[in-house]
Design brief:
- Helices cover about 35% and strands about 25% of the residues.
- β12 and β13 form a beta hairpin.
- The longest helix is centred in the middle third of the chain and has 15 residues, at about 105-120.
- The chain is α/β, with parallel strands linked by helices and about 325 residues long.
Length: about 325
């Protein structure tokens, strides 16, 4: 449904997006991750036709977005990070205005309004002024606007930003529900949210795509071949024992209380693990525990981007 080919975008001397290519298939829910300044918002603005790339192509269901923009944009519903709402309108007035702007008339417009308000759960507040609604309900109105006309693709930029925990849970559920009828691409700083909601994760760092896989596969690959050992003995003796085994390297080591060393090792498979037992036993260093390293999406994010999740560095490109 979405295909980006070798996208580049620069602002003055700053390269926001560099040679970015990916594909998103019909019915997928894809999370878009990256620290501030990684180029997420720039990419979403290009995918929705709000911003032209310096070079590259974007195909929406096989349609070139910049050669046939009207035809391609009809397939896209977009919620920017700050929803473009008119606060002095009621939710219903705003949605009717948007429906008319999209050429929806008569029964078709009524059908779409009923569908959008039902899916987003705003039927009870549609007679209220938008300015009087909570942030959570304003987000819902923005999502209702995005799905008017039943677009095949829904793109959401930080849909849970600034929401309280209850509102966040509700919007996450709404995004999952949208994935039953639409292809969904959403950006987020919240790693647990992306893991919970998405089928696939795209991670962007400094304008470059550094990962494209499911959250589970990324976590599994990051922890593959790594072992956590707890050993009774001094840190330097434990390090020497581990490094005596061919193919094993010490990734980190620290000394816990009561003379216990904690090591993270690259073990090189089952043979490396078996050799470790012999090496430590030969030095009278009892192994108190050995288990595969379970790497979370947070650690994957840090490793791939070199940034702390949600860390503010500069304005989002």
């Amino acid at each position: 449904m979405i295909e980006a080919r070798h996208l580049y975008k620069s602002y003055a001397k700053t390269e926001a997006v560099h040679d970015l290519s990916f594909r998103i298939g019909k019915g997928e829910v894809v999370g878009f991750l990256g620290p501030n300044g990684a180029g997420k918002t720039t990419t979403l603005n290009m995918l929705t036709g709000c911003l032209s790339p310096g070079s590259g192509e974007i195909l929406i269901d096989g349609i070139d977005l910049f050669r046939e923009p009207v035809k391609a944009k009809r397939k896209i519903g977009y919620l920017p990070e700050v929803p473009p709402l008119y606060p002095d309108m009621t939710a219903e007035e705003f949605l009717r205005f948007v429906a008319a702007a999209r050429g929806l008339r008569g029964e078709a417009a009524e059908k779409e309004l009923i569908h959008a308000t039902r899916v987003t759960g705003i039927a009870g507040v549609q007679k209220k002024l938008i300015r009087s609604l909570s942030r959570g309900f304003r987000q819902r109105v923005g999502i209702a606007e995005a799905i008017l006309g039943d677009p095949e693709i829904v793109i959401l930029d930080e849909p849970t930003s600034g929401l309280d925990p209850r509102q966040t849970v509700e919007i996450r559920k709404l995004v999952r529900d949208l994935g039953k009828e639409h292809t969904v691409l959403f950006s987020s700083h919240v790693l647990s949210e992306v893991r919970e909601v998405s089928d696939r994760v795209l991670i962007l760092s400094r304008g470059r795509l550094v990962a494209d896989d499911s959250a589970g596969n990324l976590e599994e690959k990051a922890g593959e071949g790594k072992l956590l050992l707890r050993v009774r003995g001094e840190e330097k003796l434990a390090r020497a024992a581990a490094e005596s085994v061919p193919g094993v390297s010490v990734l980190s080591i620290e000394e816990e209380e009561n003379g216990v060393a904690r090591l993270i090792l690259s073990a090189g498979g089952d043979e490396g693990a078996e050799s470790l037992f012999s090496a430590f036993a030969g030095r009278s260093l009892p192994i108190l525990g050995m288990e595969p390293v379970r790497t979370g999406l947070e650690e994957v994010f840090l490793e791939l981007t070199g940034d702390k999740p949600g860390e503010d560095k500069e304005e989002e490109a």
